[in-house]
Design brief:
Structural class: alpha/beta
Number of strands: 15
CATH topology of the largest domain: Aspartate Aminotransferase, domain 2
Shape: globular
CATH superfamily of the largest domain: Type I PLP-dependent aspartate aminotransferase-like (Major domain)
Helix content: 25-40%
Strand order of the largest sheet: 4-10-9-8-7-5-6
Largest sheet: 7 strands, mixed
CATH architecture of the largest domain: 3-Layer(aba) Sandwich
Number of domains: 2
Strand content: 15-25%
Oligomer: single chain
Order of helices and strands: HEEEHHHEHEHEHEHEEEHHHEEHEEEH
Radius of gyration: 22 Å
C-alpha cells in the first residue's frame, strides 16, 4: 500500500474534520507542500490557493522567515504563561505593534488562539464592561444573518448561518439577528432613505424591540466573509456607529478575515471612516503559520478593566494567551506585510481581480460579482431578472467546485456563490488564470 493510500485510510479511521460528514470526504486532497500562492497535493499536482488557506495565508506559503522566527523563539522560550504577574517579550512587542497599526482609539490587546476564542472574548468583555458600570442588564448581542463569528457555543449563537445551529440547539440565550445589508438582495422597506441607512436602521429597530437597557453589543464583519463576501453599502457603517452611540451599545468589529490588509487597508472599517469599540482578529496576523487571535479594546474599556475592584476583575483567561512563539511569528509576519508593501498590493491586485471578475457578468448565469480589496464573490442564479437561485437538486455548487478543482483552482463555494481571496503575493498571471478557470467552470456547469 502506498503512503498516500495508507494515510487516507488512517484519516478515514481516526480523524474528524471540521464540518465532518463522510459524503464530503470521498476523495480528499492530501496536501504535501505549498509555495507562494500555490498548493501541491500528494500526486504532485499544483493548485492555485484561491482562498489563502482559510482567508489567512496572506504572505503566501513556504515563507522561511516565519519558520525561522518560530525556530528561534522555540529555542529560547517556546512557551510561558502570560497570566497576570508574568509576561514575555514577543507578546509585549506584538501588543505595542498592534497599537501602531490599529484604530487610533484602540491601544490595548488580549491574545487568543483563534477567531472563535476572540469572539468569546469580545462577548465576555462587553458584558464585563456594562456590569462594571452598574448596568448589569445589558447582556444581549445583536449580529447579522450571513455573519460568521465562529462555532464555539456563544460565537455560534452570534453566527448568522443557521446550518451551524441545527444539531447544537439550544443556542445561548440573548443573541438576536438582523438582516444582512447584502446589496444584491436587500429590499429597502423605507425608500425615503438610502439602502445602506435602511439596512443599518434594522439595528435601531432591534435595539428598541429588545430594550436599549438590555443590549450590550453589536457584532459585525466589515465585509461578511464566509456568508458570501458581502461588502455593505458605503453609508451603512456610519449609521451603525451613530446608532451604537445613541443607545450605548458597544460596536464590535469582527476583523478575523478583514484584518491585516485583506480589504486593501490594515483594518476593514478604515474603508468606511468609523472606529469600533472592540476589534477582534486572527487568521492573517500570523498568515496561519501558527494559531493566534485576539481582541483590541478602546481606551475607555481599558480604563474600566484597570479600575475595577479586585473582586470584580476581568476574570477571563486562556492557557495560550500571549503565547511567545505565536507572537514571535506574528511579529515576523507583520514585518513581511509592511516591508513588502502587501496592504497596498492587496488594494491594487484586488482592484485588478475585481475588474477581471466583472467580465464574467456577461455569462447568462452570473447574477452578481462583488468584492472589496483582495476578496470577491461570483454569485450564480437560475434567472437574472428574478435573481432566483438554482434548485438544490441541481447541485450547482458541488459541480462548480469539482470543475474548478479539476482545472487547478482550489477554493470554496457557498450555495452557488464562488469565493476568491488569494494570497497577497499572488501574481497578476495567477489572478488571470483563476478568473479563467472560474469562467470555464461556470460554462461547464450552467
Amino acid at each position: 500500500m502506498s503512503l498516500e493510500l495508507d494515510l487516507l485510510q488512517a484519516d478515514r479511521a481516526h480523524l474528524l474534520h471540521p464540518l465532518h460528514h463522510p459524503s464530503a470526504h470521498q476523495a480528499p486532497k492530501l496536501w504535501v507542500s505549498g509555495h507562494g500562492a500555490m498548493l501541491t497535493d500528494s500526486t504532485g499536482k499544483a493548485y492555485i490557493d484561491g482562498l489563502s488557506g482559510l482567508w489567512n495565508v496572506v504572505v503566501g506559503h513556504g515563507r522561511e522567515e516565519l519558520a525561522q522566527a518560530a525556530y528561534d523563539q522555540m529555542r529560547q522560550l517556546a512557551y510561558a504563561s502570560a497570566y497576570i504577574g508574568s509576561t514575555n517579550e514577543p507578546a509585549v512587542r506584538l501588543a505595542s505593534k498592534l497599537a501602531e497599526l490599529c484604530y487610533p482609539s484602540i491601544n490595548s490587546f488580549f491574545f487568543t488562539s483563534g477567531g472563535g476564542e476572540s469572539t468569546e472574548s469580545s462577548i465576555k468583555t462587553a458584558r464585563f464592561y456594562w456590569k462594571a458600570l452598574g448596568k448589569p442588564d445589558k447582556v444581549k448581542f445583536i449580529s447579522r444573518m450571513k455573519g460568521y463569528h465562529g462555532v464555539t457555543l456563544a460565537a455560534m449563537s452570534a453566527t448568522g448561518l443557521p446550518a451551524y445551529w441545527t444539531m447544537f440547539e439550544p443556542r445561548v440565550p440573548g443573541f438576536v439577528h438582523i438582516e444582512s445589508p447584502y446589496p444584491y438582495r436587500f429590499v429597502n422597506p423605507t425608500p425615503e432613505v438610502s439602502d445602506g441607512v435602511a439596512a443599518a436602521n434594522l439595528l435601531e429597530a432591534a435595539i428598541l424591540r429588545e430594550g436599549p437597557e438590555t443590549v450590550a453589543g453589536f457584532i459585525a464583519e466589515p465585509v461578511q466573509g464566509a456568508g458570501g463576501v458581502i461588502p455593505p453599502q458605503d453609508d451603512y457603517f456610519a449609521r451603525i456607529r451613530a446608532i451604537c452611540d445613541q443607545y450605548e451599545v458597544l460596536f464590535i468589529a469582527d476583523e478575523v478575515i478583514t484584518g491585516f490588509g485583506r480589504t486593501g487597508r490594515w483594518f476593514g472599517l478604515e474603508r468606511y471612516g468609523v472606529e469600533p469599540d472592540i476589534v477582534q482578529f486572527a487568521k492573517a496576523i500570523t498568515s496561519g503559520y501558527v494559531p493566534l487571535g485576539g481582541i483590541g479594546v478602546n481606551d475607555t474599556i481599558r480604563n474600566v478593566i484597570e479600575t475595577a475592584s479586585g473582586e470584580q476583575r476581568w476574570m477571563h483567561a486562556f492557557t495560550y494567551s500571549g503565547h511567545p512563539t505565536s507572537c514571535a511569528v506574528a511579529l515576523a509576519n507583520l514585518a513581511i506585510i509592511e516591508g513588502e508593501g502587501l496592504v497596498q498590493r492587496a488594494d491594487e491586485l484586488g482592484a485588478y481581480m475585481n475588474q477581471a471578475l466583472h467580465a464574467l457578468e456577461a455569462l447568462p448565469s452570473v447574477g452578481n460579482v462583488r468584492g472589496l480589496g483582495l476578496m470577491a464573490a461570483v454569485e450564480l442564479v437560475a434567472d437574472k431578472a428574478s435573481k432566483a437561485p438554482f434548485p438544490a437538486a441541481a447541485n450547482v455548487g458541488g459541480r462548480l467546485l469539482n470543475e474548478m478543482t479539476s482545472r487547478g483552482l482550489y477554493t470554496r463555494v457557498l450555495g452557488e456563490t464562488i469565493f476568491l481571496a488569494p494570497p497577497f503575493v499572488s501574481s497578476a498571471e495567477t489572478i488571470d488564470r483563476a478568473v479563467q478557470i472560474i469562467g470555464e467552470a461556470i460554462a461547464a456547469v450552467s
